[in-house]
Design brief:
29% helix, OB fold (Dihydrolipoamide Acetyltransferase, E2P), 2 domains
């Protein structure tokens, strides 16, 4: 059984999806919204498996809604505008329904969601990768990390440090640890170097959370606000010296 939320600013559009879904007893509608602000609230509250998402809506557009979610469900866009199709698939939507669409076209979209050969995580994992792909001089404010079979949002500003764990990396916040599918070098390349400094082959620190630095004859220890102590290796000491005035 999968939870579904329908988001469309037109009542007729929501009704059509609800009627089509009557033929899929495993897909249960748990909420509806007619604007982007209510959509964010409903999705974060009910954590659905699938959303049918309009694009042009009051409050927030469909794409803006995605940027405010704690977790990213599977997405089927449903819209009267074909110019957004490329952008929809850039965020790895399951499908793009162009209004008006018939029942057989709707069935094709739902079949992509219910295909037992593909897990939920496999369907939405590419979105995490796309959100971590940054343009020149642009760095992500949020990233998605895997927890079980879900992807959850982590604000980059809340990451105190990043620690290598084999081929992966642990993102340490004040409240918890998250394991990223990216290695520490890949994360270093994608995050703002003015904020995140590599101090060891196994450690990156967020300068915003540095409480003090203890200096020794041949090394430094960085003390973070959560009392974590991170050793600066000899090969990265120049990065600390560059920040000393």
């Amino acid at each position: 059984m999968q939870k579904v939320i329908i988001i469309d600013d037109e009542a007729a559009g929501r009704l059509l999806i609800r009627q089509y879904l009557e033929h899929y007893p495993a897909l249960i509608v748990v909420g509806e919204a007619n604007n982007g602000v209510d959509a964010v609230r409903l999705i974060n509250e009910f954590r659905p498996d699938l959303i049918f998402l309009d694009i042009q809506m009051p409050g927030l557009s469909g794409f803006e809604v995605l940027g405010h979610l704690d977790e990213i469900p599977q997405i089927i866009f449903s819209t009267a505008y074909d110019q957004y199709a490329l952008q929809a698939f850039e965020v790895h939507a399951v499908d793009y329904l162009l209004k008006p669409y018939a029942r057989d076209r709707f069935a094709q979209a739902v079949a992509r969601v219910t295909d037992p050969r593909t897990t939920n995580l496999q369907k939405i994992q590419p979105l995490a990768e796309s959100l971590m792909t940054t343009a020149t001089n642009s760095y992500p404010e949020k990233i998605l990390v895997q927890t079980g079979n879900r992807l959850i949002t982590v604000a980059v500003s809340e990451i105190l440090r990043i620690e290598a764990e084999g081929d992966y990396a642990a993102l340490v916040t004040a409240k918890t640890h998250h394991l990223s599918n990216y290695g520490i070098s890949a994360l270093e390349a994608k995050l703002d170097p003015r904020q995140f400094i590599r101090v060891h082959r196994s450690d990156i620190i967020n300068l915003h959370y540095v409480r003090e630095i203890q200096k020794y004859p041949s090394s430094y220890d960085v003390i973070l606000q959560n009392d974590d102590v991170v050793r600066v290796s000899r090969s990265y000491m120049d990065k600390i010296r560059e920040l000393t005035f």
